């Protein structure tokens, strides 16, 4: 694969760094392009990849579109008319929207990564455009999987993915902050409370992923009769914590559909 990265910001850099770190790509297989010289320079320094001034100067068979959605149309207009693959992480842009703006022969894959990809703990989904095939799916899985979890889903579910894993990190950050505040209220120093809260969330997530046990069953393992945990859980239920998270994901998914013109 010869990868051309269009937009050398944090997400583009994270995906390329992860692919190089995992051995899926070598730096010499990657070329970056960004209208902002500082971003291009930082991308080159972080990845060891070559950078060019224009998209047309890239020698690539696969393009990774990492621009902001409002800048995507202008960038797509510079793609060369040849058989190639375009993997888009531009939020909200459907495969049909992209396909209408690229030359014939460009196969499109739409992805929705999230910001924990920056630390190699991402959760991403991808879907295939009309002309894309299983080889294109594997290319997307290779890139996204190098910085976390990658799953293939129908495009009709991409707004739900945006509401859950795309927006979800912000919901978890609020939870970590609130748990740390609770620790401070109980007498812990702020720095230690924050570390303990963040590590607790990290450990609980790892238990779900690594054991395969349903989170409800894991919760029951911690909540002993008449103990501290069940008292705390009862308080969370009294304040509607569960329904608040359900509604937050639902509203974020609905907003994603609105932004995408669905």
Automatic annotation (TrEMBL):
Cite the InterPro entries for this sequence.
6-PGluconate_DH-like_C_sf (IPR008927), NAD(P)-bd_dom_sf (IPR036291), P5C_Rdtase_cat_N (IPR028939), P5CR-like_CS (IPR053790), P5CR_dimer (IPR029036), Pyrroline-COOH_reductase (IPR000304)
Q: Which Pfam families match?
A: F420_oxidored, P5CR_dimer
List, for all copies, the residue spans of the domain called Pyrroline-5-carboxylate reductase catalytic N-terminal.
2-92
Molecular-function GO term, any one = pyrroline-5-carboxylate reductase activity
Q: Which cell locations does it reside in?
A: Cytoplasm
Documented EC number(s): 1.5.1.2
Q: Which PROSITE patterns match?
A: P5CR (PS00521)
Pyrroline-5-carboxylate reductase dimerisation domain span: 155-259
Q: What NCBIfam families does the record point to?
A: proC
Task: State its role.
Answer: Catalyzes the reduction of 1-pyrroline-5-carboxylate (PCA) to L-proline.
Q: Which PANTHER family match?
A: PYRROLINE-5-CARBOXYLATE REDUCTASE, PYRROLINE-5-CARBOXYLATE REDUCTASE 3
Q: What is this protein called?
A: Pyrroline-5-carboxylate reductase
Native source organism of the sequence: Luteolibacter rhizosphaerae
